[in-house]
Amino acid sequence: GDSVTQMEGPVTLSEEAFLTINCTYTATGYPSLFWYVQYPGEGLQLLLKATKADDKGSNKGFEATYRKETTSFHLEKGSVQVSDSAVYFCALSDPRVSGTYKYIFGTGTRLKVLA
Amino acid sequence: GAVVSQHPSRVICKSGTSVKIECRSLDFQATTMFWYRQFPKQSLMLMATSNEGSKATYEQGVEKDKFLINHASLTLSTLTVTSAHPEDSSFYICSARATPSVRNSPLHFGNGTRLTVT
């Protein structure tokens, strides 16, 4: 079945450092890919998405490119801030395969940015 | 837009009692809502898919008699944890997708409910 694999955390960076959080997926169809962010004690917020190969999603300085050839959707940011400290989830959805709009989430990667 | 309100944000109850959690889509209609459970430092586990006007679809291993789901309107789904036990303590999160759904529309999440059963 479909699955999402994320790099294990926690990831600890200094402010203004470059961030990469790896995400790879397996899917039988052509899923849409998402990154969600969860701040402490809160639900998930959509950060960015990409719906087809070579699409680049971007928001708040974060970017991720849908790479079909490597089945990846790595999250990047050029200069992180303390306020970026959160848990980041990679997810996919392909209702054409599953028949529903269920999302499959990765295990989440905790990011801690130090001032 | 696309706000999902979840209430309460935090609840403490005694073992054996029942707790109801509400999930409302404030500015859109949602025929389908999803209920997740999140264990500490772990990912989200889909518990059930809530369908307006019909029975919920539960994931394998989730007790439907213990986690009662009611989706009475296009903007409200409720999860009731019946006869709660300490092992039910967890973070419960609901999500919804606007209706009519399109393939690439994202899920919108509530802020979650921290349930503690003593």
Task: Explain the overall architecture.
The complex is a heterodimer of chains A (115) and B (118). Chain A is mainly beta and 115 residues long. Chain A has one helix and twelve strands, in the order ββββββββββαββ. The relative contact order of chain A is 0.34. The mean pLDDT of chain A is 91. In chain B, strands 2, 4, 5, 6, 9, 10 and 11 form a seven-stranded mixed sheet that branches. A four-stranded antiparallel sheet of chain B has the order 1-3-8-7, with no helix packed on it. The model of chain B has no long low-confidence stretch (mean pLDDT 89). By secondary structure, chain B is an all-beta fold. Helices cover 0% and strands 50% of the residues of chain B. Chain B is globular. The chains are: A mainly beta (115), B mainly beta (118). The A-B interface holds A 32, 34, 36, 41-46, 49, 51, 89, 95-96, 100-103, 105-108, 110 and B 4, 6, 32, 34, 41-44, 46, 49, 93, 95, 97, 101, 103-104, 106-112, 114.
Secondary structure topology:
The complex is a heterodimer of chains A (115) and B (118).
Chain A: E1 3-6, E2 11-14, E3 19-21, E4 23-26, E5 32-38, E6 44-50, E7 56-59, E8 62-65, E9 75-77, E10 86-93, H1 95-98, E11 104-105, E12 109-114
Parallel strand pairs in A: 2-12
Antiparallel strand pairs in A: 1-4, 3-9, 5-6, 5-10, 7-8, 8-9, 10-11, 10-12
Chain B: E1 4-7, E2 10-13, E3 19-25, E4 32-38, E5 44-51, E6 57-58, E7 67-73, E8 76-81, E9 90-96, E10 108-109, E11 113-117
Parallel strand pairs in B: 2-11
Antiparallel strand pairs in B: 1-3, 3-8, 4-5, 4-9, 5-6, 7-8, 9-10, 9-11
Multimeric status of the protein: heterodimer
- What composes the largest sheet of chain B? 7 strands, mixed
Instruction: Please summarize the sheet with the most strands of chain A.
Output: 6 strands, mixed
Helix content of chain B: under 10%
Distance between the termini of chain B: 37 Å
From the alpha carbons, calculate the radius of gyration of chain B and give it in angstroms: 14 Å
Low-confidence stretches of chain B: none
The coarse silhouette of chain A is: globular
Globular, elongated, flat, extended or rod-shaped: what is the shape of chain B? globular
- The number of distinct β-strands of chain A equals 12
Q: What Rg of chain A do the Cα atoms give? A: 14 Å
Counted by DSSP, the helix tally of chain B is: 0
